[in-house]
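Today's session is about reading a structure prediction critically. Students often jump straight to the picture, but the first step is always the sequence itself: look for stretches that repeat, for charged clusters, for runs of hydrophobic residues. Only then move on to the predicted structure, which in these notes is written as discrete structure tokens rather than atom positions. Here is the chain we will use throughout the hour.
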Amino acid sequence: MANEKLVIIKEADLTNNCPECFSQDLKLSFYQKHKQGKLFNSITNEVTSKIVCNKCGTDIYPVSWTDDIERSFKYYQKMVVPDRSTVTFTSLFWILTLLLVAVVAAGVYFLLQ
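Below is the predicted structure for this chain, in token form.
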């Protein structure tokens, strides 16, 4: 089972008003999902975002966004450049693959003898 981890790719401080406490201390974060398993590590194309008020600590969901927050979000969303999605295999994968090839080669060798 692969472990999933969200890695921050961009953070920005917003000066928009919080819909809950009306302070001007919001933080916008963009995350990219990384999966890590025993045989492979991969970076996905999935990018998520989160807006949090630093004063009251609440998450600001898109339902309660004002027009100003939405404009700021779209601006920063255009600036986000996620990492390329890749899959890299671990050394355990390569060892198991090499072992499997060796077992098949030995089996073919003994069958032909």
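Discussion point for the tutorial: The longest strand covers residues 40-53.
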